[in-house]
Amino acid sequence: MAATNTNYDRKSELKAFDDTKEGVKGLVDAGITVIPRIFHHPPKLDDNLDSEASSQFSIPVIDLQGLELGSPTKRKEIVAKVAEASEAWGFFQIANHGIPVDVLEEMKNGARGFFEQDTQVKKELYTRDHSRPVLYNTNFDLYSAPAATWRDSFGMYMAPNPPKPEDLPEICRDVLVDYSKQVMKLGKLLLELLSEALGLKPSHLNDIGCSEGLLLVSHYYPACPQPELTMGTAKHGDGTFLTILLRDHIRGLQVLPQNKWINVPPAPGALVVNIGDLLQLISNDRFKSVQHRVLASRVGPRVSIASFFFTGMLPSTKLFGPIKELLSEDNPPKYRETTVRDYLACVHHKGHDGTSVLSQFKL
């Protein structure tokens, strides 16, 4: 058994894997039937997912149809649903969000095309250097997380300073530009609804900079020969203000809103929205950033595209703390102020180890 092998040098195995620049897909292409030990996760202690419990619950689906008509009654109704979902679940799906289905399909196909193009072309982009316009690698936290996860990713900041078009991967260049414009518009709309849900003026969250940055990250989860030993994405909360997720038809996403893992089945044309840690922090715990994960599977490849609204590792001195208008004698601030970059540095340092970084910022 591998566990009794005293010669196991995790660090050099991680480096050897990273140095191939071929990612998890490279392992699958090589025809492995046993996954390397660096991907082994300890047994999932919080796996209290019994199918009965998980099927009783489902995250809310909010239909945005009618918002564009400007009816105050309709808007109020949608804001109430957004408030309830953000306070109780931290997650919801949205239908009729305004991004055409053909753009969603093109984006998924473009992402899949990137990962499935010639390995030599991809290798040129493989890096852990955050100053590069496009970041392609396996596991942002490969060297800090307790175990590696079964996925490859590529991402780029599409705002505030988008890459030059020629720096984007040729295979999905046009759709990346088109999709990011549309998802930015949608993100700003959702932040208006979330502002109203907090009892603030619609422009509040956009005005303070919650939509200033957009990081687009595509994930590729190849079919895994031993899914019970690893994870697609380990349990974590997002270090963002807001995340909008586009995914394909393959299941795997689970959320942990009330200490029970709940499956989030794909709904055609819908997008998944979740509250990030930074929005929980500035809302002073009113909105919840909920832990979630993606299971590894024998079925694949699974593709998803996450739009992270925050400025990430970009240099910025802007401080974020609990919003003053929400505070009172009965509701004092629960968190200290932080820059987005400092918050994310904590996330990167710790990796996805199943605990929340938010606790480090509590007063």
TrEMBL record:
Which keywords has UniProt assigned to this entry? Iron, Metal-binding, Oxidoreductase
Q: What GO molecular function annotations does the UniProt record carry, in alphabetical order?
A: dioxygenase activity; metal ion binding
Q: Which InterPro entries match?
A: DIOX_N, IPNS-like_FE2OG_OXY, IPNS-like_sf, Oxoglu/Fe-dep_dioxygenase_dom
PROSITE patterns named in the record: FE2OG_OXY (PS51471)
Spans traversing the lipid bilayer: none
Ligase among the record's keywords? no
Q: Per the entry, which co-factors are needed?
A: Fe cation
Gene3D superfamilies given for it? B-lactam Antibiotic, Isopenicillin N Synthase, Chain
Asked if the keyword Metal-binding belongs to this entry, the reply reads yes
Give the Fe2OG dioxygenase domain ranges. Answer: 210-312
- Family in the record: Belongs to the iron/ascorbate-dependent oxidoreductase family.
Q: What is this protein called?
A: Fe2OG dioxygenase domain-containing protein
- Write down the species: Malus baccata (Siberian crab apple)
Its taxonomic path starts at:
Eukaryota, Viridiplantae, Streptophyta, Embryophyta, Tracheophyta
